[in-house]
Amino acid sequence: MKAKAIVFTGVRQIETREVTLKELTSTDVLVETYWSSISTGTEKMAFNGLIPSPPFIYPFIPGYETVGKIIRVGDHVNENLLGKFVYIAGSFGYEDVNAAFGGASQYVACPVESITVLDGIDDPMAGIALPLGATALHFMDLAEIRNRKVLVLGQGAVGILAVQLAQHMGASLVAATEPHPARLAVSEADLRVNPDKEDVSAALAGHEFDVMIDSTGVMGAIETGLRFMKFHGKVIFGGYYQRMNIDYSQAFNKELSFVAARQWAKGDLLRVRELIKEGKLKTSGIFTHTHPIDKNLDEAYQQAFNDPNCMKMILEWKRDA
């Protein structure tokens, strides 16, 4: 079967091309994509050629934030799934192109166990937020934030959800730093600080944090945040970092613990789905931009990667979505 897909053909080179899907196995489902999204973390690094290792070997299909409708099921899959909206974290089901997640395709074939059914969610597009929320939820589990003071660096999509989850899971205080006013305005943190317009030391005076969560990847922001950590505090690195380059003195003097959060854990996608369904995790504020898949994709990717007002770019695959 043929499908239109987004393909990274080289460093900062992108095109839509026809690709070939592998044959559906007895335990696979075929999903018609309605929406996918552009990751401004891992996908941006891959776009710029900064992850030169499998599965990021050109040409490859990016995308791990995809929502679509099941249109075919394998022989050993429950037919009741037909017509349901699902979140899929990508696919390796292609014959003629590599898949670095592989979700940015008009049709996606994937094992049934890799889908998350979106029953009960009023707007299925909210399923795009499942991996972001699950990543942030994993931070909370690693940090054990109940009754603790939490500092979140960065109010991009993951940072916004991390603040909400920290509050929901019982943090005693949640502060957030973010230099872009539009992003800070969406934040629900108890204490919000713009480091470009305020003296961070003055704004956070009197506070010492048990937990710091970084969703910026900016070494200067991390170094500043470390000054406000308690003795034996815990730092969660929430992104993918090519190199770590921070002043060690704060870590040494305070005996800080550093934890690398790789991805969400088993069951986290389902936990986030339930939080969205119950209205306990609000996702609409992070979906700031949309772009039809048949328009200028370079424009969409450049805006997603470079416009600070673009928190999450949604690519529309179906006109009647």
Describe this structure in words.
The protein is globular and about 60 Å long. The chain has 2 domains: 2-119 and 288-316, Alpha-Beta Complex (Quinone Oxidoreductase, Chain A, domain 1); 131-260, Rossmann fold, CATH 3.40.50. It is α/β, with parallel strands linked by helices. Helix content is 24%, strand content 28%. It has helices spanning 42-47, 130-143, 157-168, 181-186, 200-203, 219-226, 249-254, 268-277, 297-306, and strands at residues 2-10, 13-20, 28-37, 60-61, 66-73, 85-88, 98-99, 107-111, 115-117, 149-153, 173-177, 191-193, 209-214, 229-237, 257-260, 289-292, 313-316. The strands form 4 sheets. Strands 3, 5, 6, 8, 9, 16 and 17 form a 7-stranded mixed beta sheet that branches. Strands 12-11-10-13-14-15 form a 6-stranded parallel beta sheet, sandwiched between helices. Strand 16, helix 9 and strand 17 form a beta-alpha-beta unit. It contains 9 helices and 17 strands.
Number of helices, counting only DSSP H or I runs of 4 residues or more: 9
Can you tell me the CATH topology of the largest domain?
A: Quinone Oxidoreductase, Chain A, domain 1
Q: In oligomeric terms, what are we looking at?
A: single chain
The top-level CATH class of the largest domain is Alpha Beta
Binned, the helix content reads 10-25%
Gyration radius from CA atoms, angstroms: 20 Å
Our estimate of the beta-strand percent is: 25-35%
Residue-averaged pLDDT:
94
Domain Alcohol dehydrogenase-like C-terminal: 157-260
InterPro entries: ADH-like_C, ADH-like_N, BchC, GroES-like_sf, NAD(P)-bd_dom_sf
Pfam families: ADH_N (PF08240), ADH_zinc_N (PF00107)
Keywords: Oxidoreductase
